[in-house]
Design a protein that fits this description.
Blueprint lengths: L38 H15 L10 H10 L5 H14 L3 H6 L2 H8 L5 H13 L15 H9 L6 H12 L8 H9 L9 H11 L5 H14 L17 H6 L1
Length: 251
Amino acid sequence: MPLPSRYSVDERPRSFPPAPEEPRRRIPKRDPSWQRPARRRVRAIRDRLREMYGPKVNEPHGHPIAELVRTVLSQNTNDRNRDVAYTRMREAFPSWEEVRDARRPDLEEALRPGGLHQQKAPRIQHILSQLGEHPDLDWLATASRDEALAFLTDLPGVGRKTAACVMIFTYDRPEIPVDTHVHRVGGRLGLFRPNASFDEAHDEMLAITPPGAEYELHVNLIHHGRALCRPRPRCGECDLRRMCPWYRENA
């Protein structure tokens, strides 16, 4: 999954009301026999990733629709192509109403650099059609987590990962989006049980991550998945190998 971009066109970061205080709930395990990693171990992994890739600080921007659309555009492409497609779209159609009501061929052409433009254009328009006459998601800032996630995942083509991206990158709400990198690296490190589904991995990562570390752990796991912990891992260069069950079993 591409990392969050900054802003483009006229979308400067804006302030937003604080989220409601919600107690951190205990997340039940899907498999009662699974032994979650100790918090000390999770902190050690976070700290080692920080040594390898540097500390990461979230800069929530307060534009939920923009984040939602960018996440759709990020599918099956890289950061640069996503951002080029997004900028072309907003320059051609400055308002979300104009994006929603655009002629399909014109929107597809604007999105062409991001790939899969013939699939992404109708998906984006379908999503925007569900957000009111004047598309709006600003209410997510003060919605309960359950209400926000339920609404987002009910939108066409929006799953748990996309919803989590909207919540954490827009409002710094505690979520850990699980993409293929996070799923692969987290599985090898034993952060969730082997063969866990993506939905289960989302729950497990949220359950074990120290409060406030969600963004940093998410971003650095992606960096690690891209740099070293690839489908064919470069374990000899990895400073996490002493902490890695997969390395011990496969070295």
